Amino acid sequence: MRLQDCHNIADFRRMAKTRLPYPVFHYIDGAADDEVTKDRNTSAYDQCDLVPDVLAGVEEIDLTTRVMGHDIALPLFLSPTALQRLFHWQGERAVAAAAQKFNTWFGISSLATVSIEEIGESITTPKLFQLYIHKDKGLNRMMIERCQAAKFDALALTVDTIVAGNRERCLRTGFTSPPRLTPRSAISFASHPGWTLNYLLREKFHLPNLDTHVAEGSNVAISVADYFNTMLDQSMNWSDAANIREQWGGTFCLKGIMSAADARRAVEIGADAIMVSNHGGRQLDGSRSPFDQLREIVDTVGGEIEIICDGGIRRGTHVLKALSAGATACSGGRLYLYALAAAGQAGVERSLGNLQAEIARGMKLMGKTRIDQLSEANLRWR
Ligand code: FNR
C-alpha cells in the first residue's frame, strides 16, 4: 500500500497495520474493555444528520477559528498522544511540523519522546503541553516550569486517567515502552525490518520530559498501565486542578470532562477551555461519546468556556456536526497517528490535507462560508 492510496483515515489505519510490529499497532488502535466506547465515539456522529442550505454563494470560504486565544486555520487540532517515536522514527517532530504547516494547535504529551524544549523551539504555531498529575509533586512542578520557560501557549490537565484503563489488547501483546523482546514480539519485529532498523539505529529512545525524575526508569521496559498505576496521583481533586492552574498562570484547559456538572466546575476554577473527551475510549468503557454529551455541555456552559470535542473524528463531516452542535473546535489522536505510523510527516500532512479538504467541501455543500455560520439549525437528530 502506498501513501497516494490513502484517501481517508481507514486507509491510513490499514497502511499503519502493515508497517508496525503488532504490539505497537494494537497500542494505538486498541481501547478499554470491549472497546464499545471507542467505536461509539465515531458511530455517534451517524445518529445525527446534516441539513444543508443551498444557493448560498460559497466560492470563498474561511475555516479560521479562534481557540484558546489563537486564530487557527483548521477547526481541528492534534490531541496529545504518548510515545510517538515508537510509531515512526520522526515522532513528535513530524506531528509538530505538520501542525505548523496547517496552522493548528499541536498537543505534546507528558509521555512524549521528544523534549518540551525541542518542541518549544521548533514551532511558532500554538502548542499545548498535556500534564498528568503525578504523585511526585516535584515532577509536576518541574514540567510546568519547563513549559513556562519554553513558552508553551496552553497547559491541558488530563483528568480521566487516574488509573489505567483495561486495555486488553496491550495485555495480550505484552506491549511495553520501550518494546520488550519476547519470542512472539521478536517475530513481529523481524518481519518489520524497516521499523525495527529505524528504531534500533536512531537516537536512544526515552521519555525526556520525565527524565530527571525517572532517569533510571525511563529506559526500562514498563507497561503504560504500570506507569499510570504507580506514578499518577489518584487523590487528585478539584482543588489540585485549581492549584495547577495557578502554578501555570497561563491558558488552562481540562482534558477529559464528560459531564455538564464538571464543565460547570471547570468554569468555576477559571479554566479557559475543556476538552470533552473519554481519552479515545481508552479509559472508561461504557462512557458516553463526546459528541453525544456535547449539547448538554454547550447548554450548560456555552459562551463561558471554550468547548473542544475530542475523539472519534474520522471525517470532515464529523467536525461540521460538532461545530454545528456548538463546539469551539474539534481534536483527535488516531486521525493523525495512523498516518504518522504509515508515512511519518508526509503521512500526517496528507491526512490533515484530506480532512481539511473534506471540511472545506462539506462547508460549501452546507452553504456556509464561515465556521460561525454553522448552527443547530443545520442538524437533525435521529
Ligand atoms: C492517547 N491519548 C492521550 N491523552 C493524553 O491526555 N495523554 C496521552 O499521553 C495520551 N496518549 C495517547 C496515546 C494513543 C496511542 C492514543 C490513541 C490516545 C488520548 C488522546 O489525546 C485523545 O483524547 C484521543 O486519541 C481521542 O480519540 P481519537 O481521536 O483517537 O478517536
UniProtKB/TrEMBL annotation:
Catalytic-site annotation from UniProt: 279
GO molecular function: FMN binding; oxidoreductase activity, acting on CH-OH group of donors
Annotated FMN hydroxy acid dehydrogenase domain residues: 1-382
EC number from the UniProt entry: 1.-.-.-
Binding positions for FMN per the UniProt entry: 80-82, 109, 130, 158, 255, 277, 310-314, 333-334
Record keywords: Flavoprotein, FMN, Oxidoreductase
Binding site for glyoxylate: 27, 132, 167, 279, 282
Principal EC category: oxidoreductase
CDD domains cross-referenced by the UniProt entry: alpha_hydroxyacid_oxid_FMN (cd02809)
Swiss-Prot/TrEMBL cofactor(s): FMN
InterPro entries in alphabetical order: Aldolase_TIM, Alpha-hydoxy_acid_DH_FMN, FMN-dep_DH, FMN_HAD, FMN_hydac_DH_AS
Recorded superkingdom: Bacteria
PANTHER family with a match to the protein in the record: 2-HYDROXYACID OXIDASE 1 (PTHR10578:SF107), S -2-HYDROXY-ACID OXIDASE-RELATED (PTHR10578)
Family to which the UniProt record says this protein belongs: Belongs to the FMN-dependent alpha-hydroxy acid dehydrogenase family.
Protein name as catalogued: Alpha-hydroxy acid oxidase
